[in-house]
Amino acid sequence: MSTVSAVINVDVKGPTISRHLYGHFAEHLGRCIYGGFYVGEDSDLPNAGGIRLDVVEALRALNIPNLRWPGGCFADEYHWMDGIGPKERRPVMVNTHWGNVEENNHFGTHEFMALCELLGAEPYISGNVGSGTVKEMSDWVEYLTRDGDSPMVRLRKANGRERPWKVPFWGLGNEAWGCGGNMTAQQYAAEARRFGTYCRDHGGNKLYRVAAGANSGDYAWTETLMKQLGELGCAYRPAAFMQAVSFHYYTIPGTWQDKGDATAFGTDDHYRTMVQAARVDELITGHANVMDCYDPGRNVGLVLDEWGTWWNVEPGTNPGFLYQQNTLRDALVASLHFDIFHRHADRLVMANIAQTVNVLQAMILTDPESKALVLTPTYHVFEMNKGHQDAASLRVDLLSGLPSREVGSDTLTTVSLSASRKDDTVLVSLSNLDADEAADVELDLRGGRAGEVGSRILTAGSLRTHNTPETPAAVAPRTHEQVTRTEAGLRVHLPAHSFVTVEARLA
Ligand code: AHR
Questions:
Q1: Residue 110, CB half-sphere, CA atoms under 13 Å: how many?
Q2: Are residues 383 and 398 in the same domain?
Q3: 453 and 418 inside one domain
Q4: Where would I find the Alpha-L-arabinofuranosidase C-terminal domain in this sequence (predicted)?
Q5: Is the ipTM of this complex over 0.95?
Q6: Of ligand 1's atoms, which has the minimum distance to the CA of residue 178?
Q7: Angle 152-157-165 from CA coordinates, rounded to 5°
Q8: Could you tell me which of 219, 301, 305, 267 has the C-alpha nearest to residue 414?
Q9: CATH number where 315 lies
Q10: How many other β-carbons are positioned within 10 Å of the β-carbon of residue 165?
Q11: Which listed residue, 12, 76, 295, 438, has the most CB atoms within 10 A of its CB?
């Protein structure tokens, strides 16, 4: 068993870990909205205006900071005016991208804003650049955020909403290099400038406009945006039409044709998955380095508004619905991402896991027949880590004993840590990615002494363990007893394949 030594200077506060790194994403895709968040007003399930209340209650426990909607690829074929007014008069459209299914538009702008209010989350709306017009997007912003009197304000009021909403985050399209219009970086940069210009700040509502960014490691895309959307060189000032640039990165250890099975996998598959997940560190660094050349003052934010595992769909389900199970392995992918996000808190301002309910690496799975709701292992990582939201990051210096595994031509470090401080409480997250070997971590807490200590652990008999309606708590957090106070700080035992959080009040 390895013993890892690490130092945390608890009195040297680093950049704040934005709560928005714990953001979410809900697309009109498969059963995320319909049959997930939204069951309709006539459902037997307790609901508020059709929004499923047990889903809301479970998610409220995560302190979801923001929710991205309506896509994804769907965003660039969504026409918001189809989703307002009396439901029986809303036109049906075809969701060509996801399963070619009919979309009745019953979940539209008002329903999304009501969902955000129920969740206590801030809305992040992705506008349609690919197949929409500048006027359509500009009108949507006016409809949502303007007060007083104007054509869009009148329309909103006629639809039952007197006061404007607050909409802090606005996406200028999605994946413009692919489903969002198959554009070149130059084409998109020009479009983003135009669309961004007419997304106005109305009254006190200040939009944080996010330009649709690169696919994984396409640094040239980021560079084109940074070059064209601002003034060149060191004198770069963030332009009014863009406050952030996004990128997307999914953990896919297989190929696009055969991504790998969500539950039937071996130890080698597990390590390959962890290597792919850890790659997000290199990608954030790469995009941030490009941004630093044009924006050394770090005024423009980097947003990872789609991340997570992407497996082959569950057998027997619609391939266009992206429904997948979620095991302890997915939980470790999430905990590893968060350690990396915390380390990049100076540039990474927002991240959104894909997607909240019933799609890809979800928090919640609902059974289409029994309607039972299951919390996934990934849900528990979000819940156990929520104390990091808006806390000051603390640097973790790993001194010795870091265990690793050779995975093909890569080396995977199998213990990962991050820490933060809020008032007098230090929260340390620790992941042991090793399938078989336990590890001990000796934490030297400098600049403070641990008083009262509490710890929780998420683990299971196997990395393949997952929750179902029959076994909803097969992977669930429990109290972790194997944490001891030492002269220097704390000793934490990490069983194989486990995620542990330690909360210490400074004495
Ligand atoms: O999250 C599923 C899809 O993945 C999104 O719609 C798209 O943006 C990405 O390719």
A1: 22
A2: no
A3: yes
A4: 305-498
A5: yes
A6: 10
A7: 75
A8: 267
A9: 3.20.20.80
A10: 18
A11: 76
Both 364 and 475 in one domain: the answer is no
Q: Please check whether residue 99 is in contact with residue 144, taking contact to mean a CB–CB distance below 8 angstroms.
A: no
Q: In angstroms, rounded to a whole number, what is the distance separating the alpha carbons of residues 319 and 333?
A: 23
Q: What is the C-alpha to C-alpha distance for residues 42 and 83, in angstroms, rounded to an integer?
A: 19
What residues pair up with 211 in beta bridges, in sequence order?
172, 245
Q: For residue range 115-168, what is the model confidence (pLDDT) as tens digits?
A: 999 999 999 999 999 999 999 999 999 999 999 999 999 999 999 999 999 999
DSSP 8-state assignment for residue 90: S
Regarding the beta carbon of 340 and ligand 1, being less than 6 Å apart is answered no
> Do you find a cis peptide bond into 72, omega within 30 degrees of 0?
yes
Q: Would the pTM of this model clear 0.90, i.e. be above it?
A: yes
CATH of the domain at 446: 2.60.40.1180
427/355 same-domain check: no
Residues 422, 391: contact at Cβ < 8 Å? yes
Which residues, in sequence order, are bridge partners of residue 314? none
* Residue partners of 302: CB distance under 8 A and separation at least 6: 244, 245, 246, 247, 284, 287, 288, 291, 344, 347, 348, 349
Residues 377 and 336 placed together within one structural domain of the fold: yes
Distance between CA atoms of 163 and 156, rounded to whole angstroms? Answer: 9
Q: Whose CA is nearest to atom 9 of ligand 1?
A: 72
Distance, CA 72 to ligand 1 centroid (Å)? 5
* Parallel/antiparallel/unpaired status of strands 244-251 and 208-215: parallel
Residue 47 Cα to ligand 1 midpoint, Å, equals: 28
Report pLDDT digits (tens) over 188-245. 999 998 999 999 999 999 999 999 999 999 999 999 999 876 554 444 444 568 899 9
Q: How many domains does the structure of the chain reveal?
A: 2
Instruction: Provide the 10 A C-beta neighbour count for residue 38.
Output: 25
Which domain, by its residues, includes 315? 19-389
Euclidean distance between CA atoms 87 and 105, whole angstroms = 8
Alpha carbon of 274 to ligand 1 centroid (Å): 21
Q: Which residue has the tokens 């569950």?
A: 314
Specify whether 187 is located in the same domain as 293: yes
